[in-house]
Amino acid sequence: MEEARKPPVTREAALRIALASRAMPNASLPALIQLLQRQLGEDIDEEKLRQTTVTMLKTGFASADGEEDGEDIGIGLESMKLAVRIMWGETQGDDSLPKIESYEEGEMPGSVRIAIASDKGDLLSGHFGSCLRFLVYQVSPTEIRLVDIRDTMDAEFSEDKNLWRAKLIGDCHVCYVVSIGGPAAAKVIRADIYPIKIPDGGPALDILQPFQVAMVESPPPWLLKILGVSAEKRLKNYSAAEIDE
Predict the structure, then answer these.
(1) DSSP secondary structure letter of residue 38
(2) Taking Cα atoms as reference points, which of 154, 193, 155 lies closest to residue 176?
(3) Residue 197: helix, strand or coil by DSSP?
(4) What's the confidence (pLDDT) of residue 231?
């Protein structure tokens, strides 16, 4: 008796592809499946779908239609971005994303801005060059506030994707990542952002709370430079604030 061959497209992958096709007007489900199988191979699972890019969709549909630009066939750039997120298993509307809090400059004296490379929810889980988004936190010794969530999909259209990402978080002082290559790290450092690699990742708050402690008790030289004060002065000011409370 022959062993039943597994379907070329897994059930979860098929569901994502079907949802992605609905997100793109004028892009039929059969056409999307054919495009993906041309680019990714006959057998497609969730992991392979993570290789899908906006550029792949744009050039693939344009080529099939004889057009030079995928937008000319009525799909639209934003629709393609949404379709890619769906196939990756992530969308900006993901309920697991943390809520952005209001913040005005000067509200948290002595704070620094920190970017967290993330692929899901409030987790440090992304590589610098491929993460879906950066969670941007304002961090002081007494408070952590999420002030922005920055999508990275447009990096696809940049000649230098790592430089584009560095500019995206150019107002941040520190960037936490699961991984970052040497050339990318050099660009981040040139943008006056200090990269910190934590391979195991974890919840953003679990990453940032030790940073809060270090701000007061044992700030390294690079952090002192960011803060613009001496460690002695920093500790004195923080202790005084505790007494005032």
Answers:
(1) H
(2) 193
(3) strand
(4) 41
> Residues 32, 13: contact at Cβ < 8 Å?
no
Q: Is the dihedral of CA 25, 155, 140, 125 positive or negative?
A: positive
Least confident of 5-9, 158-162, 188-192, 231-235: 231-235
Identify the pLDDT of residue 62.
78
In the chain the beta strands, taken as DSSP E runs, fall at: 112-118, 123-124, 133-139, 144-151, 174-177, 194-197, 202-203
Are the CB atoms for 177 and 119 separated by under 8 Å? Answer: no
Mean pLDDT of 21-36: 86
Those residues with Cβ within 8 angstroms of residue 37's Cβ, 6 or more apart along the chain or in another chain: 8, 44
Burial (Cβ within 10 Å: 0-12, 13-18, ≥19) of residue 6: exposed
pTM of the model: 0.65
More confident site: 97 or 215: 215
Short-list 14, 19, 5, CA closest to 37 = 14
**pLDDT tens figures, 178-206:** 999 999 999 999 999 999 999 999 999 99
Q: What are phi and psi of 23, to 5 degrees?
A: -75, -15
Q: CB–CB of 112/234 below 8 Å? A: no
| 3 state SS of 229 | coil
pLDDT in tens, 31-41: 999 999 999 99
Residue 196 pairs with which residues in a beta bridge? Answer: 176
